[in-house]
UniProtKB/TrEMBL annotation:
Species of the source: Pseudoalteromonas phenolica
Entry keyword annotation includes Signal: no
Name assigned to this protein: ABC transporter ATP-binding protein
Any GO molecular function: ATP binding
Family: Belongs to the ABC transporter superfamily. Macrolide exporter (TC 3.A.1.122) family.
Key word Nucleotide-binding present: yes
Pfam families named in the record: ABC_tran
Length: 234
């Protein structure tokens, strides 16, 4: 049985300068189970991005414990965090972060090139092709990102995030650079991926999209203010 549970216990984050000390997170407790779809919302400056950075091992907490897929990742070195991040975490950013010089196929394959255990070219092709199919972009495999619409680029970014079979998909304002039609399409895709078993934690300022999650969390001044659990339809 896989252990892909994510658990934060009493996570705090302080930013200290010579003039002041800012508490971005104050004793946050959070559990995300395999197959969850969690949205985190709240006003600007409430700590959403800081929390997502800690979940994604892009930043470390000032205090508290972080368990990821059975590993205590609270005090890892930079290199250890990078290795865990590549193996267990997929990212979808507001700005897509695709490499214009690479084809769609090679953008999606990029995380596989950094695996500790190298894959054969055939294994890489199988994984990339499977992710292209998931986001309905197989016909665009040979294109460059600048030949795609914003919605198509976000689909490619989602495929890249999924290619290493991550324990969790971290999604940061995925519709921020999209019009409403493309934004709705991307959100429907995320919902379908979750139905297929992908664990998702999403930061969004849009209440409509936050409501699509199974669990809705609200951050206020660095504190988890409340939680609402949707009843799943049978």
């Amino acid at each position: 049985m896989s252990n892909n549970k994510i658990k934060l216990t009493n996570i705090t984050k302080k930013f200290v300068t010579s003039e002041m000390e800012t508490h971005a997170l104050r004793g946050v407790d959070l559990e995300i189970n395999e197959g969850d779809y969690v949205s985190i919302s709240g006003p600007s400056g409430c700590g959403k991005s800081t929390l997502l950075s800690i979940l994604g091992l892009l930043d470390t907490a000032s205090d508290g414990e972080y368990m990821l897929a059975g590993h205590d990742v609270s005090n890892l070195s930079v290199n250890q965090r990078a290795s865990m991040r590549n193996e267990h975490i997929g990212f979808v950013f507001q700005s897509f972060n695709l490499i214009d010089e690479l084809s769609v196929f090679d953008n999606i394959a990029l995380p596989l090139r950094y695996r500790e255990k190298a894959l054969s070219q055939e294994e890489v092709k199988q994984k990339v092709d499977a992710c292209l199919a998931k986001v309905e972009m197989t016909h665009r495999a040979g294109h460059k990102p600048n030949q795609l619409s914003g919605g198509q680029q976000q689909r490619v970014a989602i495929a890249r995030a999924l290619v290493n079979d991550p324990a969790i998909l971290l999604v940061d304002e995925p519709t921020g650079n999209l019009d409403s039609k493309n934004g709705d399409a991307v959100m429907m895709m995320l919902a379908e991926l979750n139905r297929q078993g992908t664990t998702i934690c999403m930061v969004t300022h849009d209440p409509r999209y936050a409501d699509m999650a199974k669990r809705k969390l609200h951050l206020l001044d660095g504190v988890m203010a409340d939680e609402f659990k949707m009843e799943l339809a049978v």
